[in-house]
Write a structure and sequence with these properties.
Chain A is α/β, with parallel strands linked by helices. Chain A has 11 helices and 13 strands.
Chain lengths: 302, 302
């Protein structure tokens, strides 16, 4: 079943306790698509500038991602981000950011993508997310990511988006901010009252909490010892999650729980290297092996 | 199999967003013993002062706890603690503390308790923990709790204790402090090199991580919406854990994982009220029902 992601492609520079890299491939759509592609073919809609290295594109062809929706815009520059992680890897500072092409008009959705059924709207201005969403009339599942910037500054538009999506993905601070409740369980429940059928609260190294109808899903993160770079953890989580849902079509609470495990494991590989280094080394078999181990770790009834 | 706890009994006053209480029954040994008693009979060794209300004792007889080791010391005063929780319930301030009887000599261990096999040394000065431990020559499993105060000020004595116990229970900040590593997985592994066969890292609302030989156990917390008072969460967790281990004698990694689930569920009930209010209302059947629900929430292979 057809899965599409719209989001950012970036040229990232990262400082982490595990080392520093300059000008590597990043962005929400990139991490999402790479992770999702282990489960399902992925269509990608995003824009880069004329400065975007051809080598990045070649490299990315490793993954099962249709790049017909990738626009290289002449006269524009690619989104750039520099971030710095602190000792415990849980917090980061944005050292510098250049929106560049992200501040311009949205990339066009190719006609052949309009039959997409599984839609992931990576984090961007909610007005853009609504505009993109409406280009997929055959959607079966639409899920959006968001961030504190839009919660604080564009709440009316964000609330309109929430009326239109099936699921929302956000981190725990954002969930508490959006709902005005410091208990994440209550916050997620309140957000479902704003529209989405399910809310996925990402808690980083502490795992994930989901509310879906009356059901609650809670999973720990994979116990990772060797965290090199958490950049893209949330996006690769969402990729694993949506890839699983698109590949099975199982939108029950049980399906969603398995999707959370797929997201957890995709993210656990992603953070083992800078950029897509680790995801390029592994296969679906590696993901399945870790999924089995994770499942065994959580079995309480044997 | 015989389970014993040595620790504090306190008269607590608590300010929480859910309300305030003054002069209620608390202390590590009390919360531990109440929680453990759902799984196994418990022996308790602790001291109170002559000000200790007789009504507290009567009330506590509700639980399956042998109080022959409870010393009411004439001329002494009971440990008192006043704490304040903030909006998100994750952090608390100690408003005032009076050690009183806790600063005096340890309570004697009754002769009939010397055959105890499962020993839990609730948090106190590590020299006292060692002294108590040595009074149980038939021990099969000795587990200690500790805190930042001893890690910072009594490290040589704490290291001696670690050579003598099978397991250590501590929270994530303490684990990082003791091991000098901000990754909790690595920190726990390093602590096992100091002596204990297993290390249980309590992460509060984020669940628990355990390293046991090479095996890792990771469980989320029960998704609690109605947190009234987190006081005693860690002690009731340890009580559920040790109660399960004492009742089954299963010290394998699999047994330890189930013990963590029992601790998680015991703590989840405890935080639903001040003092022992909620634990007094429930039965083993309530714990088992929530355990089944928790197990189902974590099943990924069905």
């Amino acid at each position: 079943m057809s899965l599409i992601v719209t989001g950012s492609i970036g040229i990232d520079s990262i400082e982490s306790p595990a080392g520093n890299v300059d000008n590597v491939l990043g962005g929400s759509a990139i991490y999402f698509a790479a992770a999702a592609s282990f489960f399902s073919p992925v269509r990608l809609v995003a824009a880069v500038g004329e400065d975007f290295p051809a080598a990045f594109l070649e490299d990315f062809r490793h993954f099962n991602v249709d790049l017909a929706g990738l626009e290289q815009r002449q006269g524009s520059k690619t989104f750039r981000w520099r971030g710095r992680y602190h000792t415990n890897m849980n917090h980061r500072d944005t050292v510098s950011v250049e929106l560049n092409v992200l501040a311009e008009k949205l990339p066009p959705v190719p006609g052949k993508y309009q039959d997409s059924e599984y839609i992931f709207l990576a984090n961007t201005h909610p007005a853009g997310q609504i505009e993109l969403l409406e280009q997929f009339p055959q959607r079966k599942l639409a899920v959006a990511d968001t961030m504190d910037l839009w919660i604080n500054n564009e709440k009316p538009t964000l609330l309109k988006l929430l009326q239109r999506v099936d699921g929302l993905v956000l981190n725990n601070d954002e969930a508490e901010m959006l709902a005005g409740d410091s208990n994440v369980i209550k916050a997620a429940a309140r957000i479902t009252e704003l529209g989405p059928k399910f809310v996925v609260v990402k808690k980083g190294e502490h795992g994930v909490f989901v509310t879906h109808g009356g059901a609650k899903i809670v999973l720990p993160a994979w116990p990772a010892e060797a965290v090199v770079d958490p950049t893209g953890a949330g996006d690769s989580f969402a990729g694993g999650m949506m890839g699983y849902l698109a590949s099975t079509g199982d939108l029950s609470a049980n399906g969603l729980r398995k999707a959370m495990a797929c997201g957890t494991i995709a993210a656990s590989f992603n953070i083992e290297s800078f950029s897509l280094g680790r995801l390029k080394q592994i296969s679906r078999a590696d993901i399945d092996a870790r999924l089995r181990e994770f499942s065994q770790m959580l079995r309480l009834d044997n």
